[in-house]
Amino acid sequence: MRYVFHDCEIDLDRETLTVSGENRHVEPQVFQLLVHLVRNPDRLVSRDELVDVVWDGRIVSDAAIHARIAAARRAVGDDGKRQAVIGTVARRGIRFIGQVAAHEAEPPPRPAKTSGTIAGDRGIRFCQSGDGTRIAWTASGEGPPVLRAGHWLTHLEHDRSSPLWRPIIDAFGAFSTLVRYDARGNGLSQRAVDDLSVETLASDLLTVADAAGLDRFIVYGTSQGAPVALTFAARHPERVRGLVLHGGFARGRFVRSAEARAEGAAYVTLMRQGWGTEGSQFLQAFASIFVPDGSLEQLHSLAALQRIATDSEMAVRLRSAFDAIDVSALLPRIEVPTLVVHARNDGVHPLSESLTLASEIPNARILVLESRDHVLVPQEPAWGTFFADARRFIVELPV
Description:
The protein is an alpha/beta fold and 399 residues long. It folds into 2 domains: 2-103, Orthogonal Bundle (Arc Repressor Mutant, subunit A); 125-396, 3-Layer(aba) Sandwich (Rossmann fold). Helix content is 39%, strand content 18%. It contains 14 helices and 15 strands. An 8-stranded mixed sheet has the order 8-9-11-10-12-13-14-15, sandwiched between helices. A 5-stranded antiparallel sheet has the order 4-3-2-1-7, covered by helices on one side. A hairpin with a 5-residue loop joins strand 8 and strand 9. Helix 6 (198-211) packs across helix 7. It is elongated and about 70 Å long.
């Protein structure tokens, strides 16, 4: 749904506000306040109603409410003196002033049926990291270079026809040159490795960047790729134009809390028993946690990926290594523009981890997606929201 008023437009599907045709970034609470007002034009909205809608009924100060109202006015080109869009009714509340036109939003484009050929595919190549580990990498698409940090689990060959990963590759390829690789221990890269430290994983990223001939580029870190991206950006700031961190974290489960440690340990136990077995209930449950709104085809593809990407021993070692990561001390040192993205109800890593990233990285902003999926799927509204925002961020970054 889109709401058009004055020279502004609110797009609920993409969670965007545009003013005079330009995107205007606002905090989530400010956006929610504006949405509630345009849905209730010319109706008095009391303080208590605002608290219920915007703050979920939590105790909040008058100063905080006034600050959000002032921010909403600034966002739409209004102010407390003119009150051309948001009017104040003394001691009673606020109301939206003016005409609002509501339009059904066009659904985001759906990817075409996947085949084995990716647009602009350069083919799979190999390079050697500093310790001699073989790393498989590839590139596709056209536009500003984006290097996807290696994460768990990937398989470059399987991705070509995957109904889960292929649409993401195609979507990035529509506006960027996406370079991706299988992290050590995964996919077509060397499986038998000893060193799984985050510093070594960041060195692998540098190796791929050099092999691909990338000078300065954007690093896309999703899930476990986020701490790898952060480590690389802190060590090689001259190579990084910006970061896109999706569903990530700075602290692994073993570091966050006793509860998270227990969860991580229980998960590892289940992995030892059920990894790599076709028809395994564990693999099916694993897939549904990562993509609760995925189709049966997407869930089956993820379960198949788990079987072919790595063996049970390496899967447990990788999971344990990721759970022990703590790169939180690096966050204040990240100098580049950073887009932090997280699904509000992500069941793999909590939103609180991305809130920490966004609050402690100096030049970061956060995009909260209304989704449960750790890996986005094209059939959900959050898909269009993510790629609209990611495209703007990537294309508009200075070279």
